[in-house]
Amino acid sequence: MKTVTDAIADINLTASMDFKDYTKGTGVEYTYNKNGAMTKDLNKGISSITYNSLNLPQTVDIKNKTVEGRNEYTYSAAGVKLRAVQRWNPGYSTNPVIGSAVNVNALTETETTDYVGNIIYENDGLKRILVDGGYYQNGNYYFYIRDHLGNNRIVIDQYSDAVQSTQYYPFGNSFAENTNQTAQPYKYNDKELDTRNGLNMYDYSARWKHDWGFTTVDPLAEKYYSWSPYNYGYNNPMRFIDPTGEGPYDRINAARNMTGLKYKQETDTKLRTENTKEALEYMDCSEFVSRVLAADEITDDVQHMNTAGLKDFFEKNDFEQSTTAQVGDIALWNGHTGIVTGVEEGGKVVITHARGVGKLSQESTKALTPQEYRPGTFHGFYRPNNETVDGKVSQNAKLNPASPLFYGAEGAPVTVEGKKPKLPEVSPGQMSAKITIDKDKLNN
């Protein structure tokens, strides 16, 4: 991508992440280095981004109509962010040439944030302690109310009073009509929104995400060669999320983790369902897929199913059957099955599967049509109709007894982690719901 033109007038409301088109009609607005990492975004006034050896942003210079500043980042050898320093010019008031260099000597104001595990310090003082499903700050506990994609939609305090409300467009930009956006920064997909000097990008650990995708090439791009290496969630954020910036969590990783196993058809249920060394020594195609379904938590445990049993399972549960493949689908023939780990033109797919006697389970080296893979009856490609944050089937408003987690209904999916308030009913079709929580109804 080199240029974006926004025909809509700027929205100048508090908390708006409206696209800023500071360089309308000026030609190339985005530039990249030899690694494919973005080095300039002139629409935001980003004149320079430098990267470390892990391809993570090290310095970001920003100079536009409202701010002149530099963000500096420090990481561990494993790529874990340890420190972020925001520097800015407090006396800045000009209409600069977009893309011009930042005057570093004028950046006299500084704010430093240190990340020590789940503890966050700001200017050497304790700012926030992150806990499962929320955080602790200034002597109070706060809890997230999440939607079906793991986005933090509402933050409530320990008295069930709402302290922050955020609504999102599909790729993570927030609506302007939100409340108290500075209360805490963990929002879309529970990722930190970095607003330092107007950066407005999400930190996904391995990569940064801007308005519609990532700023650097996917480190696993060679495994998804039919997709742009900058894409987010296969360009389908309503179905997939990408928790780290390295690839959607779905059945693909589970399948690839089971390649290299010897093939054998076994009838003993223990050998087909247990996780002992003996049980994992051999695997046929249906056991392979059954273990993928369990690893992705579509089934609670590994089920003893042959291909006919898999077909029956898909038909009796909330699965879509299609003749058009998507990555992560279960391909099912009469007598064979596998996981789709690549899709190409002409209906050709790459399958990861247990292949037959004398062969090891593997990802196919060549994309083929279902008929080329196996003559005979092909039942189709199956996928869950509803997927949650990492590809698992949604529980649809049922309590998960293994954790303090509620899943919302289809119309307005909401989850509550931590203490569990009783949520009001929401009429079907509502994508957003104003939720009022009575503290007297809060379960202790």
Overview of the structural elements:
This is RHS repeat-associated protein. Residues 281-353 form the Peptidase C51 domain. It holds the Pfam family CHAP. This protein has 444 residues and is mainly β. It has a domain at 251-384: endopeptidase domain like (from Nostoc punctiforme) (endopeptidase fold (from Nostoc punctiforme)). Helix content is 8%, strand content 27%. The chain is built from 5 helices and 25 strands. The chain has helices at 251-256, 269-273, 285-295, 307-316, 370-373; strands spanning 30-32, 38-41, 46-51, 57-63, 68-75, 81-88, 109-116, 119-122, 125-131, 134-137, 140-146, 152-157, 162-165, 192-194, 201-203, 208-209, 319-322, 330-333, 336-343, 349-353, 362-363, 378-384, 399-400, 405-406, 415-416. Strand 4 (57-63) and strand 5 form a beta hairpin. The radius of gyration is 24 Å and the shape is elongated.
Which regions are unreliable across 5 or more consecutive residues at pLDDT < 50?
388-444
The helix/strand class is mainly beta
The global form is elongated
Number of strands: 25
What summary fits the major beta sheet?
12 strands, antiparallel
Structure annotation, total helices: 5
Helix-residue proportion: under 10%
Distance between the termini: 51 Å
What is the radius of gyration computed over CA atoms, rounded to a whole number of angstroms?
Answer: 24 Å
InterPro entries: CHAP_dom (IPR007921), Papain-like_cys_pep_sf (IPR038765), Rhs_assc_core (IPR022385), T6SS_VgrG/RHS (IPR050708)
Domain Peptidase C51: 281-353
Protein name: RHS repeat-associated protein
Pfam families: CHAP (PF05257)
